[in-house]
Predict the structure of Type IV / VI secretion system protein, DotU family.
Amino acid sequence: MHLVDCFVDVFTFVRQLTAVDSEPMSDTAVRQRLDELLATKAHLATAGGYQSQHYDDAKFAVVAWLDEKIIGSDLSIKDQWRTELAQKHYFNTVKGGQLFFEKLSALDQFDAFEMDVREVFFYCLAFGFHGKYYTDAGVQELAAIRTANYQLLMQKQGVADTKAMWFSQQPMAGGDADVGAKPQGWALMYGVPLLVVTVAVAWMRVDLLGLIENLVKTL
């Protein structure tokens, strides 16, 4: 069991929710569904030996990601969502775009449990989180952060980090815009080719390919 397993359903739900042809849901319904998904798998973290802080940090990353995903979408609820972010509800903050990277940089690369937390942060980055790096000026730094964390996770898995080239490319500019829901030419997920994400995950954890495949089907 890996910590990211606690959030697979959330990743999938948000991807489905923000897909172009998704069925509309009310703000209340979305929040209730997220409450259910987050609560349902929380016990897996404890069963896996993770401390509450490990789960909370990983949850923070996912919540910051889903906030950005929703307010950057074409959903009718996005304006209402912006006034009451999920991160405010769960963590009493509206600074997720900044705190995400502070928490990420504070993780200990020599602690196995915190490396699993880092894995959750990495998925949020791979699935398009920009946070404070949402402008064109932040593209290079965001790409460097993504690459650095990919390399750390490769080293954890004992895989040659020459494969880090997969995530060295720059994401597409566009702020909070959801380019993943509107592919042009090559299928893109927030500026990162889906093939790139799939290959990277295959090198990290083969058993998580199912997650990527499910997400790809929602595009």
Remarks:
- The chain has one domain: 3-217.
- The radius of gyration is 16 Å.
